[in-house]
Specification:
Number of helices: 10
Structural class: alpha+beta
Radius of gyration: 26 Å
Low-confidence stretches: 168-174
Shape: elongated
Mean pLDDT: 84
């Protein structure tokens, strides 16, 4: 893999799984697997006479450290605003690597509670704990992440191919409808021809509203929130929010592609791809199916 391909792979979106029940399940699995590995393979190269506690308790301590650290780190990360949209392969690898380093450091710090070895605080033991943790975790980085990325990429590619077939049906049922839109400034109020509406994009305190006009795209900048526009268009079944920053006319979708995070949409006469955020994937798929049945 050359440098350009590697850079492209690292910048690809990657699902952020680590919240709610999924985070608890992963943390519990880390605990169970670490305990069983330590118990059956006994990787700790120390004399039994140096143990301050039974080997079972040592395994328990070494299993609790990575489990609780994982729970703590990703509980903090999930608080970051729009983490689903920001998370990519590089972020995943970087955070997992930092997590492994912290596990190694904590394993070193608890040595005095576990062993009576007078060299507990030596550089040798610090490096040994760090090295063993990284060697165990490096397999996850270089095997599981690329495998999972490919699995998700293939899954969304297959699903997107099915959704693409809906487009000819959807385009045949466009309606003529004008909806008056009220903004935060009376002078900015306008009438929206819904069959010409492409999308709305949030930009700080404004919305960029893109409309088809004589085979070209016209951009209106209005002082209105995404929620306010969404509420005023709630009766239009084919207009839906597919991302925190985008409100979209589903009938204007020209093509759908998939990646590990979800879908990327190409709209008629619009050069940039529009992402479907991970939290909106189910809603998007359901909307597309409903529109197909009602066409």
């Amino acid at each position: 893999m050359n440098s350009n391909k590697l850079a492209n792979f690292l910048s690809q979106p990657y699902p952020f799984y680590y919240r709610g029940k999924t985070l608890l399940v992963i943390s519990s699995c880390i605990f169970a697997l670490t305990f069983l590995f330590n118990y059956f393979f006994q990787p700790f190269q120390v004399n039994l006479s140096e143990h301050r506690m039974s080997y079972e308790w040592i395994c328990l301590v070494h299993a609790l450290i990575p489990s609780l650290l994982f729970l703590f780190i990703f509980s903090l990360i999930q608080q970051i605003k729009s983490i689903d949209e920001k998370w990519n392969v590089k972020e995943e690898i970087w955070v997992i690597l930092m997590y492994l380093i912290l596990v190694g450091v904590f394993n070193f710090l608890v040595r005095d509670f576990i062993y009576t070895n007078p060299d507990n605080w030596s550089i040798y033991h610090f490096w040994a704990e760090l090295k063993n943790t990284l060697l165990a975790g490096i397999l996850f980085i270089f095997i599981f992440i690329p495998f999972n990325f490919k699995r998700l990429h293939d899954r969304y590619r297959e699903k997107s191919a099915k959704l693409i077939t809906l487009q000819p049906l959807l385009k045949s049922t466009e309606i003529e409808k004008v909806i008056p839109i009220k903004t935060q400034l009376i002078a900015d109020d306008f009438e929206l021809e819904i069959n010409k509406f492409l999308l709305a994009k949030a930009e700080k305190n404004y919305l960029e509203i893109y409309i088809e006009h004589e085979n070209k795209i016209q951009k209106l900048v209005k002082r209105i929130t995404m929620k306010e526009l969404e509420n005023q268009l709630e009766t239009v079944s084919f207009v839906t929010k597919i991302h925190r920053s985008y409100l979209l006319n589903l009938k204007k979708i020209e093509s759908i592609s998939g990646n590990a995070q979800g879908y990327q949409l190409k709209l008629t006469n619009f050069k940039n791809s529009i992402p479907v955020s991970r939290s909106k994937i189910s809603t998007f798929e359901e909307k597309m199916k409903v529109l197909n049945h009602t066409s």
